[in-house]
Amino acid sequence: MNGFERRLSARRDELDWLYMELYHDREMLEGLKAMMARAYGGRSESLRRLDKKREADPEWFRAGKMLGVTMYPGLFAGSLKGVEEKLGYLKEQGITYVHLMPLLKMPHPDNDGGYAVEDFNQVDPTLGTNEELSRLAAAMRRRGMSLCLDFVINHTAGTHDWAMRAKAGEREYQDRYICFDSPDIPREMEKTIPDVFPETAPGSFIFVPEMGKYVCSSFHPYQWDLNYHNPAVFHDMVDSMLRLANLGVEVLRIDAVPYLWKEMGTTCRNLPQVHTVMRLIRLITECVCPGVILKGEVVMAPRELAPYFGTADKPECHLLYNASTMATQWSALASGDVRQLKHQLDDLHSLPAHCCFVNYLRCHDDIGWGLNEDYGRALGIDPLAHKKYLYEFFEGSFPGSFARGERYNYNPATQDARTCGTTASLCGIEKGLYEGDEGQVALGVRRDLMMHAAVMCMAGFPMLSSGDEIGQLNGYGYHDDPILREDSRNLHRTPFSWDNAARRTMPGTVQQRLWDGLRQLEKLRAGQPCFGPGAWVTTWDTHNNSVLAIVRRTGDETMACLFNFSGLAQTVWLDGLEGEFSDLISGERACCPSGTLGPYQYQLCLGRKSGC
Hints:
Strand order of the largest sheet: 1-2-5-11-12-13-14-17
Helix content: 25-40%
Shape: globular
Distance between the termini: 51 Å
């Protein structure tokens, strides 16, 4: 019995039951298993060795040494070959996980940053070939890095072969999408389906004149939602996932997970069948390629995220994005008040132990201000007024703001808006450099490092946005590009500056200060047992609304991580943490159990069991 047969034998009953519950087709089920066997047969010996290693260490992605980076390969190095040539730079940075933004064949120019896919089995020719992707993945593995790619599971481009054949009248391919002959059912469904982009792409259906039908299109008109009621869709999408796994992809970032299943009279979000689909995908990858893990894109409140992890016995995603904490952390920086951030982290810490998050400050997308409004009201905060304050503060229009950014997706009816910008620009470095004020620049660097330090100390593992390590600033040139100027997210989707990267070794430069500060944090995280997968993590009361404390404990060590989100010195007192602590950042006595932190100062305070 080979590895695949052994793993399938242990999972066959549940796989069969879930599939038949969803699709009621035994013949199709047997076809799925045959496809899985073929995919296993196509795995290289090196990938099978990786499978064996990961089976022996299923918690590998929780290790303290994990450090991710997300990037557009074209912006970072021009192509997949270019990325391979720059792996030494990423190794120097300590990166163990590289998320390359969408790179599968896409239409140009309308592709939503690559999330409109024309061919799930082919790298976009502007970036390289499948062979180059496989070589890059192998080169990463040799350097201890895992490759993550997006898999856009909810929709295809309107120029995908299936869509083109559907337009040509082929019923088989029309059935792969959610199509109706008249507008009656679509209009009825739109009564309960929330708009994703109410200003730029209102509604959830488009009329396609080539076939005279109304097609579900949740995101943009050039992205057609797939029909997962049709098992052929599920089979072909899983087949494409396994092909990517056999090219060496170790992490599949599953896009727009909550949208997968559509039913009349519902929001078409988070339906039970979504979890059946995700559990099936988890079982399939565990059988064929257990070296691969699943990362779900689920942007919801912390307590609503737990179902996407499944249960400890029947898990779904290995990882989820921590988008909510990103927003709450920036809110804390603007207000100097950490109470909402602490409350949010407490919600996350209350989730079951198998739940694991990817924490980050910035990503390819905007910052959506989806804060906990009920808790905000309990603190006396008006949700709409605070949201307006935040997007005005981070675009730099609010009096006294240090930030520079732009609004995204502003809705004049609701006055809702999101925020775009790089970490360095939002933290004040851009403003200080523009005004030639070294004092402002120094404060911006302190804010930047403090925010990254908080991310690195949270439960889960940190992911950087490429360019943050060298203080990449906003790029305003997109305003002059007719293709890019309508999407303000291009403010922070800019070519990587290798000239600035070279300045990371020049003493006193912004690049050197950020690079060295981040490397210090990254090395501490990789080397301290308190950051291991078994560590107990919680927040702690500091008796100061401007200072966040995260306490990590394992064995005989306790680490109190302190972060001053204020531009003023703040005094803290941590009840119950007695004894001698040393600050691993400065090497001096720590503010634990009591002391004073300078503006935007952070400390990682290590103490032994006898004093804790």
